[in-house]
Amino acid sequence: MWILVVGPESVHEREGSAVEVLQQLGCAVRTTDLWDSLDDESLHDEPPTVILVEAVDEVDAGRAALVRLRAVKALAEVPVLCGVSVNGLSRLDARDGFDDFVLVPYVPAELYLRVRRAEWRNSDFNAQERIKMGPLCIDLAAHEVTVDDRPVQLTQQEFALLRFLCQNRGRVFSRQQLLERVWGVDYYGSSRTVDIHVRRLRMKLGGAVANLETVRGVGYKMKAP
Q: 2-122 domain in CATH 3.40.50.300?
């Protein structure tokens, strides 16, 4: 895990800067100025876990930095935090596109928490009792689904279908296979049942299941990360 901090060199070097605080917290940090090249091949090989734009009072410059970052393919999906002063906070807008913000001067515990929160939202893992795919979290033990920590109510079969596809990411299943594996071999319903449940999952979970793909002429799959 490493963090990219974006901002003027003068901001990076000041006392209590994000670089100083993050390094004290044990994080690996790299820095770049707003106008530096972002075409470094190493970014494509190993992109940062989180990006922190130190806008402080210069919120417009922070927005410009975000636009440049999102234009780089390797950084397009990396969560971006905005470090902003109390004075600059009133000029931030929810439509700016930052994933979160943190107040300057930094409180180490808060900065660490917001970095880990951004990392968690975008992480993927498949464990015995929990499956995590970006903002989507499936608690298998509690039989609960959340999106960005917001609970989503699913029927038993919707939950079972979602769990099965997530546990078998990257594999394509026909509608008949899904009926047999999720509904059971004794189920005699139409394959249209699968289509209806997939449609309901997409409606309830929105962009959290953007990786749920229809494979024309075959069936469905949950894309692998």
A: no
